[in-house]
Amino acid sequence: MAAGSTYGNIFKVTTWGESHGKGIGVVVDGCPAGLSLCEADIQKFLDRRKPGQSKFTTQRNEDDAVTILSGVFEGRTTGTPISMLVYNKDQHSKDYSEIASYYRPGHADFCFDEKYGFRDYRGGGRSSGRETIARVAAGAIASKILQEMGVAFLSYTRSIGPVSIEPSRFDAAEIANNSLYMPDAVAAKEAGDYLNQCMRNTNSAGGVCECIVTGLPVGLGDPVFEKIDANLAKAIFSIGAVKGFEIGDGFDAARATGLTNNDAFCIRDGKVQKKTNHSGGTLGGMTDGAPLILKAAFKPTPSIAATQQTVNKAGEEIDISIHGRHDPIIVPRAVVVVESMAAITIADALFANMSARLDRVIDFYKNV
Amino acid sequence: MAAGSTYGNIFKVTTWGESHGKGIGVVVDGCPAGLSLCEADIQKFLDRRKPGQSKFTTQRNEDDAVTILSGVFEGRTTGTPISMLVYNKDQHSKDYSEIASYYRPGHADFCFDEKYGFRDYRGGGRSSGRETIARVAAGAIASKILQEMGVAFLSYTRSIGPVSIEPSRFDAAEIANNSLYMPDAVAAKEAGDYLNQCMRNTNSAGGVCECIVTGLPVGLGDPVFEKIDANLAKAIFSIGAVKGFEIGDGFDAARATGLTNNDAFCIRDGKVQKKTNHSGGTLGGMTDGAPLILKAAFKPTPSIAATQQTVNKAGEEIDISIHGRHDPIIVPRAVVVVESMAAITIADALFANMSARLDRVIDFYKNV
Amino acid sequence: MAAGSTYGNIFKVTTWGESHGKGIGVVVDGCPAGLSLCEADIQKFLDRRKPGQSKFTTQRNEDDAVTILSGVFEGRTTGTPISMLVYNKDQHSKDYSEIASYYRPGHADFCFDEKYGFRDYRGGGRSSGRETIARVAAGAIASKILQEMGVAFLSYTRSIGPVSIEPSRFDAAEIANNSLYMPDAVAAKEAGDYLNQCMRNTNSAGGVCECIVTGLPVGLGDPVFEKIDANLAKAIFSIGAVKGFEIGDGFDAARATGLTNNDAFCIRDGKVQKKTNHSGGTLGGMTDGAPLILKAAFKPTPSIAATQQTVNKAGEEIDISIHGRHDPIIVPRAVVVVESMAAITIADALFANMSARLDRVIDFYKNV
Amino acid sequence: MAAGSTYGNIFKVTTWGESHGKGIGVVVDGCPAGLSLCEADIQKFLDRRKPGQSKFTTQRNEDDAVTILSGVFEGRTTGTPISMLVYNKDQHSKDYSEIASYYRPGHADFCFDEKYGFRDYRGGGRSSGRETIARVAAGAIASKILQEMGVAFLSYTRSIGPVSIEPSRFDAAEIANNSLYMPDAVAAKEAGDYLNQCMRNTNSAGGVCECIVTGLPVGLGDPVFEKIDANLAKAIFSIGAVKGFEIGDGFDAARATGLTNNDAFCIRDGKVQKKTNHSGGTLGGMTDGAPLILKAAFKPTPSIAATQQTVNKAGEEIDISIHGRHDPIIVPRAVVVVESMAAITIADALFANMSARLDRVIDFYKNV
Questions:
Q1: Alpha carbon of A350: minimum distance to chain D alpha carbons (Å)
Q2: Which of A170, A247, A335, C104 fits a 20 to 30 Å CA distance from B131?
Q3: Helix axes C331-352 and C39-48, enclosed angle (nearest 10)
């Protein structure tokens, strides 16, 4: 707490920047030396959260071109901190000047004023969705590390408002085909219709993002406070607008019984495996070899053009209507943010796990 | 990560102990000096998680009498670490000897063996529910601090299996009247019937715990990684058997719209307040002055007497049936654990928040 | 450890950058909101470590102009991270290309290669003296906070090679008058002569820096691991080339007796004070109200033009002579670095100390 | 800071206890699983700091028998926290009752009262030398890990008052032969005479402890804030009564020149090595393959029977004389404390270093 812009212990990420300041950036410390890395690796991730890709994302023209300022030499990471910077370009500060005078419902304006005495009211300041640029840039590095170790991510929009993915129609290949990142063309079409209706009503929608991680070694995470699921819960809940988090069956497990919820162990491919995966890939806070499955619930975009009641800084109750370029739904652009925070958390756990057994520590140093 | 038995930054809690070792303990560091504290303050909290209080909790005779070993002098905390110890008494190690040879479904046995090379197989070892004794002892101290600052907790069982509390029948006074800690006598009766049925079927049930915190100042928590909700998510998810976590409307927010989910601001009692509380008391990661509301989903007790399939350490698929004294439901005894972890997290945020504004820091030191 | 570029707990500093990368930067997180801050405040500090100010400092033309990228709005800090950036300009990468092939004595080249597998060999890379730009930029902020609280720093060169300041001739006003930052014009002249001789001999000199901090409240620091002196020791020893650290009488205390070393307490100006200050302002790890006095010993600049023996990457023993623009003495330019690291450490301790007493915590929140 | 009783990141040590409370203890978290460990391993270390072994140490009868309460199963560490407890027995609280009323010179009494509002005045409370029991118990574990990796420690008293070890007469075998732990029988005799004289004069002496660590891999520690020397500086300076710290030539390096201070590299035994070791085994914050050499200066025991001036809590200036059983010198009993803190710091650095190179991380997980 306090100094709340650093995340992670061994793989450590420090972000900075406001939506209408000079830029957004991140320092990634603790990345092992020798990872092949260039700006295109980062840009590829950033482009997944880029606005302006469909009518459901803001039409702001944010290039979000990233520069690597340190920590990479001759195409490889050196083991020293990797500083990355994205300048803010299309800021339109005038769009936001009015909101300095009142507290937007569903936003942190009031809390900022109470906590800090005043606030950078331009476009959400530090609480802007642009802050996630820094997370995604860091996540791109974590993902690249994990990829080299055989870990893969599958992340997508699981529901938008009332429209949910039917397991029977799940098609991973479809995710990249629609701007909502849904693994089902029919659902994507229905969700699009629902969002159109929200926009016509000057309203917005919520939704759920799911992330599945495969290829993890057994035993990542620790048995008590540093459970892998506890750290994922914090990581995902630290993303703005998240209101719920589940591992595996989540709240459905609360309605299950021991007999239906326990995953039986069996021998498959010569290894101990689980027959089912209600647990979502963790037991006792440690990865259990099955795919890690997490879900995050996002609230609807709080900035809506419809009339809302609020209070201004003079203490008067007023009616407001928030104009400007706002997505009617947060989830599709947040998919890569969820994946990034998961990747950062898992990379940290991977490194922490290396000293779990003395025999492996001794072996490691014999080869050094 | 690694060294995962310490939680918190300024108010820091370090737990230790296994179910069948010599005892369970906790060191609470960073407790301000001058808090009136004695063992009865701790014991009162511990008694809320004590087994053997109804037929739905294990009949083990665990006295769980706590000793304060340091940090309290002449009835008050001194500012130095408070070490607390509960000896293990009723250990029945023989009950657990068989489980050394196989992996219990729904338990961490397999993960322990893979991560550490072997495990303390007696009664769950470090992953036993007894580990929560340490959390509750620390939580008792955090709660006492918060109480002195006007913060209050209301924690209870919100659902057991299919039986949920109806908001219209919510009665806080009823919580202490039934051994399931439900705020509705009728629901408690129905839940009891359901649990009886589970027990007859050698099965177990899951459930949901809710915790409501009132009296918090506005602005606790930080805008990015150290959001109060993110830290609560980690705190609660670090409790064994938790599979889901929500703040405010949680997953329901994902199905809402901006118009229905945003909480309008108004002036009430001369202060800025919110008309509704869909957000559950946080905006942008900071407390917003409304009650903080969180829910945790617990999976069914994994230890069941019904036959299950698993694998033994020789790599053979076998059928097992777990006998011993196990609660058919985790939630009622976990209510005080959830409250404890929330209290620890909030106390930490309270202290961290003191340096948020320079003028307040300067004022503070003028009076020192 | 690991991820070793972040320092501090509540006032947290993360640095990045190599001498010949794109730039050097720092993120300062946990700075309270409301501090008046602009780039000139930072630049003033950076100019104190600027090269090219005398013949004893390198003639490199480093502008070291700092940009504040975030965390300041309308002239005041907002409570969010303050990112600062200094671009590298005068890089002359060609000057350093040869050193890629061998290990410079007294430098970290060999250790980098062994630890990370390769290194950024341009001008010292991450271990360059330019890394201290980031520390000084952060120190400027910490100093400004402390100044508003009545804390003052007096930092200077106490010795260069064999030339030491005589206490009887100490003149604080003289520090700013000579490029060696010595509080005695005669000693500065002698030290200058000594350095001229070193340069003629293609050799270099070591020295000692002293820093005196006044105006501190009693009780900063904690009794065990977070002693204020322990944190200062780490802070100062984390500066490159430091080989010794003392508080108060330091190693002289090891030759003293209890009678001569204990500081008697007395009442002066109506307050408990000490008659002497052998302790250097700390007792039991906490500030004791007397000036905090620390000394740091710096080794001689390792880069010298004289012939030295070393080993190249092919495993051959060779003779080398390091050319380029190197200061013959580190201390004068390090004075502001020592002051900066001390300021950062003390600011962190000031904020941490706010929750030491429950009555003060309660009072604090009554006024919020 | 705040919550200052935890040290280390991956190998994490949390201590608690006061000299006249119920006991002293420590929780060691992050110890790898599989280390053979029993109470005798710990006791052996504790006995090295035991009082009553010569006339220069207090005649208190402190058994200091340690109990391991958790984290060890079937003779091996399990990877979970190891809790160790030493009960206080010979407390003589009456001896100390008078000191409640005044501030002892050279002690932390005044600072405690100012910081926390009151203090546990019995025998130094948390600032007692007994606190080091916890450090030594943890150090015993760190040492055992390091021993299995081929790391060895040589720690001894280097000087007492004016009596210093002559390098030409250094004899490691002698250390265990005299109660002052000096590696020279003649010096030990002279130091004993000097201490006898101090005792006759109701006075006390200071001294210097040295610790030499061999067998370390190259590259432990990080280039910036987490330099191995910076962490050792903090670790050693966190021991009560330490006033100075040096690595290698320390303050002598400040009087040397580049030519005399740089260690030339050469090829010896087919490896890159240094011809000399002025650096004391670190370059750029990382171990360089040579023995790590550190020195700590301890002030004289502040508790002396001679008359001293001080102030009482009523604000009156008074004369006092401190009776009781106090060592006339701290160093000999502190030797094992210095070694312990060094071992803890190095173990932490060893584990942190495992993720420095991506190729080694990938190799590690291939074998898991």
A1: 9
A2: A247
A3: 130
Best C12, C80, C87, C93 member to test A by mutation, with max A CBs in 10 Å, is C80
Q: How far is CA C98 from CA A14, C94, C220, C225, D272, in A?
A: 35, 8, 48, 44, 19
Asked if the Cβ–Cβ distance from D217 to A365 is below 8 Å, we say: yes
For C314, list phi and psi in degrees, rounded to 5: -80, 0
For residue B298, the surrounding DSSP H or E stretch is strand B292-298
Q: Per residue in D91-114, pLDDT tens?
A: 655 666 778 899 999 999 999 999
Instruction: Give DSSP secondary structure letters for B206-266.
Output: -EEEEEEEESPPTT-S-SSTT-HHHHHHHHHHTSTTEEEEEETTGGGGGGSBHHHHSPPEE
The C-alpha atoms of residue A33 and residue B335 are separated, in whole angstroms, by 46
| Pairwise CB contact (< 8 Å): C11 & A3 | yes
Q: Which residues of A touch D217 (CB under 8 A)?
A: 365, 368
Pick from B30, B77, B364: CB nearest C364: B364
Task: Characterize A1-24 residue by residue with b for buried, 16 or more Cβ atoms within 10 angstroms of its Cβ, and e for exposed.
Answer: bbbbbbbbbbbbbbbbbbbbbbbb
- State whether the Cα torsion D96-D101-D106-D112 is positive or negative: positive
Residue B36, CA distances (Å) to B285, B333, D18, D46 in order: 31, 27, 18, 34
> Contact C362/B148, CB-based, under 8 Å?
yes
Q: How confident is the model at residue C123 (pLDDT cuts 50, 70, 90)?
A: confident
Q: For residue A38, give how far its alpha carbon lies from the nearest alpha carbon of chain C (Å).
A: 14
C69:A21 CB<8 A: yes
Q: Which of C9, C34, C358 sits opposite B32 (nearest CB)?
A: C358
| B234, B264, B308 member nearest A264 (Cβ) | B308
Q: What percent of chain B is modeled with pLDDT above 70?
A: 95
| Whether the Cβ atoms of residue B315 and residue A266 lie closer than 8 Å to each other | no
Q: What is the largest CA-CA distance in chain B?
A: 71
- Per-position DSSP letters for A35-88, written without gaps between them: -B--HHHHHHHHHHT-SSSSTTS--------EEE-SSEETTEE-SS-EEEEEE-
Helix (H) / strand (E) containing C310: strand C307-311
CA distance B309 to chain D (A): 26
Name the one residue in this structure whose structure tokens are 């700390």.
C282
Size of interface A-B (CB pairs under 8 A): 421
Q: C360, B350: Cβ pair inside 8 Å?
A: no
Alpha-carbon gap, residue B356 to B292, rounded angstroms: 21
Q: What residue of C is the nearest CA neighbor of D241?
A: C284
Give chain C positions within 8 Å (CB) of D359.
117
Q: What is the pLDDT of residue D262?
A: 98
- Tell me the mean pLDDT in the region C340-368: 96
Q: Which of chain D's residues have a Cβ under 8 Å away from the Cβ of C238?
A: 224-227, 230, 285
C2 to chain D, minimum CA–CA distance in Å?
A: 5
Q: How far is CA A357 from the centre of its chain?
A: 32
At D36, list the tokens. 């053979």
Domain-wise residue ranges, chain C: 6-366
Residue % of chain D over a pLDDT of 70: 95
pLDDT higher than 60, residue D128: yes
Structure tokens at C149: 């609280």
CATH of domain B6-366: 3.60.150.10
User: Which residue of D162, D283, D304 is in closest CB contact with C108?
Assistant: D283
Is the model's pLDDT at C212 over the cut of 70? yes
Q: Do B105 and A254 touch (CB under 8 A)?
A: no
pLDDT tens for each residue of B243-254: 999 999 999 999
CA end-to-end distance (rounded Å), chain C: 37
Which subunits sit against A, judged by 3+ Cβ pairs under 8 A? B, C, D
